[in-house]
Amino acid sequence: MPRSKRYQQLVSPGLGRQYISPKKSDRHIRLADKARVPQLGLNGRIRALNTKLQALLSSASPGIVVEEPSAPDASLQQETVEENHLCTVESVNEEGSKHSEEKAHSAKSTPRKRRLFPDGKTHKFYDRFRSLLPDLEKPYLEYTERSMKRPTVTTFTPTCATCSNSFCPSTASPVTLLFWDHFEVHNIWHCECTSLPVVLVRNGMFPSAPSDPHLAISIDLLDFYYMLFQRSGDAITAMAAALHKFYIHRGWQVVNVKGESIKDPFRRGLGSAIQWYEMLRVNIEKKVESVVDSARRSVIIARQKGIEGRKGNQKPTSNSSESAGGDIHVALDANFSHRHLKSAGDSPPFYEPSYFLPDEFVKEIGDRIADKRKKPINKKWIPPVPDSAVDACQHGHEAANEHKVKTADRRFDDTGVMALICRHDVPLLLVNLDTPGEQQKYAIALLEHLFSLIPPHATVGAYYDIACVLHRSVNRYGLLADSIIDRLGWITSAMHAYGHGWACQLVYAPRFRQGSGDTDGEGVERLWSKLRIIIPVSRTSSRPRRVWLLDHQVKMIGETTFADLGQNIQRRYRRAEQEGLKACESLNLCGVEEHELQKEWEMQKRDQTSVRNHAPARLKKDLDAILTLQAEVDKLQGVISGTQILLNSTYTTVGAKGQLDRLQAIHTTLASQVEQLYAALNIDYLPPELKDLSLEFLRTLILARDLKTNIRLRVIANWMEWDRLDQAAGGRDVALGTKLHQETRKKIAKRKPALLALFKKFNGYCDVLSRIRPSWCNIPTPSPLPVDLIALRDDPHFMEDVWIAPSATADPPRWLQDENIRHGILSMHRRLRSVEEKERCAEEAQNMCLWYGEELAAIEVALRLPSNAIYSHLLQTRREEHHLRRFRWSTSLVPLDRYNEEVHAAVLTADDICGPSADIRPPDEIQHALPEHHAESGDHADDEDEDEDDILDGADVDGILLSDLVEDMLQDDIGIPLPENSQDDLASHVEPSNTMGECDELTAQWIMPPWYRVDFFPELFCTQPTVPSVHELARTRAYTFGQNRVFFRARDLAILADPTSQLNDVCINDCAILLREKFRNSRCSCAVFNTFDINYVRQGSPERLRKAAERTEYWKYDLWIIPLHQPRRNHWTLVVLVLSTRTAYYFDSLAVQEGWIDEVQEALELFNILGAKSSNSTRRWSAHPLLIHPIQRNIHDCGLWVLAAMTAVFRGYEVTGLAELAMPIFRNYLLQLALALPSTASSE
């Protein structure tokens, strides 16, 4: 309608016509009236399909048998389904994508309601995976042992056949395999004996489903994600998206059967694999820990019996009295940011946490506390602080209010987490919060469980932000057992102590508490800061997964903090030394003896914690009523004075002035009535010293006390506001932007004038009290406060309460009036705390060293037990990590030599328990050391006389064993102190004979190499021992391997079968060939000489030596293995030459030092006769023993030990880790290798 005709529009007058929506008819159809509508044509289609099925079944001939697929050949086990980079993935997320359109159509028609609780299918999935994990442990251990210290393989190559039973039917299943840089689709053969998940894990892939998995992820990739998760938090979605994007970037497309790209193909499968792979790791870690724990008990028993008998083997030192601060310092605190949304749902439990206490245990504690509070309180207990002071702390802290709602309880089912940590910030225990407030049951549960884990005589100092409130509750209601209460001391944390009253600080503040040292109790806040990264993920995960994430993140934080204990103790000790020096300087300046300061401190503590110094509630109530009336009278006086000034400045009538005079008279009458009311109160509960005081003095004193309490609360809140503004704390607050930061500063600054007005008012009260205080009154008057908030932080009078009770002496105490005394008391406490901290640090460092030795001995014992062979590589890794820990834990309090003594004692303890074994010594150098400019410190100096480029020049990298990681064996050794009998000859410089040729000098050192790897040969203990028959031993065994012929006669087999016979030359030489052929696929390649070759050197027959050594093809290899026989001792030894580094390693199971250099020279003479050239021909030869302690106790196993040393070299290690108890098993293993050869008819 145009504007010109808008006036013609019809308009209803008033409110206009009202329109009401018509109501729908209420037609309730009964269930009986409803009928199912059949789908058109459905019955016809069903009949057609049944007819077709019957035709197919009848067409099959009954005489034809479908042949089951036979076991695949080893060369055909790897069959790639797709060769192109454009791969079709049908079911990488378990559900598959071939039904994606049907699911999408059904989702559009009937939207599926989100499921918050697990259904039967989910429970079944979890149960099947839990039952599968034990079957995956052995193949996982085999894979990790096989891939340890080797480059990661990024292709799928099956290592062995699936089943040895030829009658077991095999099946090939397509599986998508994810590596870090690409994915592949393979047909994986498996059978009924060996399931598909077992085959995958054995070959380094972990399945995403317990049965018929369509997706498997590389175990190395999962390990990398696990290490990344420890540092960055859980990010499965990001990892899956990054892999997908990276695959596309490298040209590996993921499409469905229609050729369409899949949006998120790997997230669900990757998440399932990560979760259950971690469960597999946890199960194995628990078994390894149980193995070490069993060995630990053996070590403790052995040392208690005095087997070790060394001076360092003593019990850890401790502070036995609770007054000395306790043996253990722990801190507790709760955090309500780690809560869990109800809408995130739940899942079946799959993980047993290591840190979290069971919810049933916490609930039981809560029920017990509720029953205890219904009973009468313990009136015999005398509180160290008046109840009024504790009540003020309880009302001033949110943590003390159990009913304070800190979270929206309707949205969250888990409201937070409470932690208990040690004084070095290592997490010990966690408990899940499920109540809106911070109830006392959580702290009680943590402490009760802690006392169940420590010795019965140990004492504990607990740091808690409301320690005074919890201390009173525990003693009043008996919330803990008497045996725990007697050994438990309560201390407030350092930061929260300033929020407590002064009387409370005198008893509970850590800086005034004897034995607290430098412990601040705020380590839990630092823990929350480290855990803040996990808040978003854990809040939206399922409840069991949230616990799993928090538990693993806390475990990582604990391991990292535990590894830095040495640096932590050293830093605390140095800080205590500096604080002690500053405190001594302050004590010297105050000019008062320390015993006088201690006396004044006891007087101050007694006076300021007295009950008389705190106003009774009745007195405060009555005085509040009088002061309210007095305030109204003062207000009326102000109004009258203002009106009188106004009337005097203007023209007024006589009547107005008369009315004003009458008001003035009324005010005077009211003031006198207030005085009479105060006199008529009859305050009989006041001390006699207060009854004679004037109303004005008592009124001003009470006002000053209340005003200072108000000022203290506001100032502390202001300080916390600034601290909270400048930095994020606990994961709850985040750093603000510039604009918000400025706005917040303005808001805080607006409250400063009101705060300064309170300062001026309080200082005015101080002046009034000083002026009107009677001369006979000995109540100390308060000191004025500075108006500068920065200077107020260091003011000694700020935290003190205003006295309302007379002093015990007529004159004011020195601690109150004398500034030197006040500063001297503070300096005294600083000095005492620094001394306590240094003593505690020294005790902790000593206890750490003792624990280091016991733990190392336990690991050594666990390594040597044959029953633990399957975990040998994990135990060896743990041992290496433990050895490296001594370099980080050694401090000025306990130097490195002391730790080296513990290492030596641990080996001796293991020898006494399990018998002698290979001399297992710590690696003094990192195997893959970084260049000097990348290292953290300059401890590993390079040899300046050697050119780096010449180290491996011309060497066969594949043939390097001992030299592939060592570049210079002449570096300074910082290893283990040797026994006394080996200290006399640490280094011998031997002039060589003229036959040495290019070698001008040999440097021989009877010390272990700086590092080496130990072979525990776990496969040896998996073999079944056999007892051959006489007929088997009577047949000659012969076979030819290339140019090497093996020939065992009956007498040679009899020597191998006899457990007390010494091996002859045939056994040594032929068994060495068999062992080399057995482990030919290992990364070691070497030349193995026989026992007759060294005799040609001794006989001076170089030509015969060259001809005999041609079969070894020694010119191809960098590593030479030369067995030697000592006719004088009838003993077998071994020399290993590394040509690239010109290093000789000597192995003698008896570790006899005499004559070892002569045998090394014989091996070097063999080297010179053969005319071999090494890359460092101008460098001196160096020699090291592989053992410096004997591992053989009999006289007949020397040949077995030589073959065991060869086996370690063949398998890619340096030293054998077999014990003497394993020699019969090894002998039987060699006999089985010989009997497996083809037999001939001839016999002896």
Structure commentary:
The protein is of the alpha/beta class. 46% of the residues lie in helices and 9% in strands. The strands form seven sheets. It has a seven-stranded mixed sheet with strand order 15-16-24-23-22-21-20, sandwiched between helices. Strands 1-4-3-6-5 form a five-stranded mixed sheet. A five-stranded mixed sheet has the order 12-11-8-13-14, sandwiched between helices. Helix 7 crosses helix 28 (819-864), helix 18 (565-590) runs antiparallel to helix 28 and helix 34 crosses helix 36 (1156-1169). The longest helix is centred in the C-terminal third of the chain and has 46 residues, at 819-864. The radius of gyration is 42 Å and the shape is extended. It starts with 41 loop residues before the first helix and ends in a 9-residue tail after the last helix.
Number of strands: 25
Beta fraction: 5-15%
Shape: extended
- For the termini, the CA-CA separation is 128 Å
Structural class estimated from helices and strands: alpha/beta
Unreliable segments of 5+ consecutive residues: 60-86, 88-109, 307-315, 681-686, 728-737, 918-1000
Strand order of the largest sheet: 15-16-24-23-22-21-20
Major beta sheet summary: 7 strands, mixed
Percent helix among the residues? 40-55%
Q: Given the structure, what is the number of helices?
A: 38
Q: What does the radius of gyration come to? A: 42 Å
Overall average residue pLDDT: 76
Topology, element by element:
Elements: H1 42-59, E1 79-80, E2 86-88, H2 100-109, H3 120-147, E3 170-178, E4 183-191, H4 196-202, E5 205-207, E6 215-218, H5 219-232, H6 236-249, E7 253-255, H7 267-304, E8 328-335, E9 340-341, H8 359-373, H9 387-396, E10 412-414, E11 416-422, E12 427-433, H10 440-451, E13 460-463, H11 467-477, H12 482-485, E14 488-491, H13 494-497, H14 502-508, H15 523-531, H16 535-539, H17 543-563, H18 565-590, H19 594-608, H20 617-649, H21 654-679, H22 688-691, H23 695-726, H24 738-750, H25 752-772, H26 789-792, H27 814-817, H28 819-864, H29 872-889, H30 896-914, E15 987-990, E16 1002-1005, E17 1014-1015, H31 1030-1033, E18 1037-1041, E19 1044-1048, H32 1050-1057, H33 1065-1078, E20 1087-1088, H34 1093-1099, H35 1102-1109, E21 1119-1126, E22 1131-1138, E23 1143-1147, H36 1156-1169, E24 1181-1185, H37 1198-1210, E25 1215-1216, H38 1223-1235
Parallel strand pairs: 2-7, 3-6, 8-13, 13-14, 16-24, 17-25, 20-21, 23-24
Antiparallel strand pairs: 1-4, 3-4, 5-6, 8-11, 9-10, 11-12, 15-16, 18-19, 21-22, 22-23
Helix pairs in contact: 3-4, 3-7, 5-7, 6-7, 7-28, 7-30, 8-10, 18-28, 19-28, 20-21, 23-24, 23-25, 28-29, 28-30, 29-30, 33-37, 34-35, 34-36
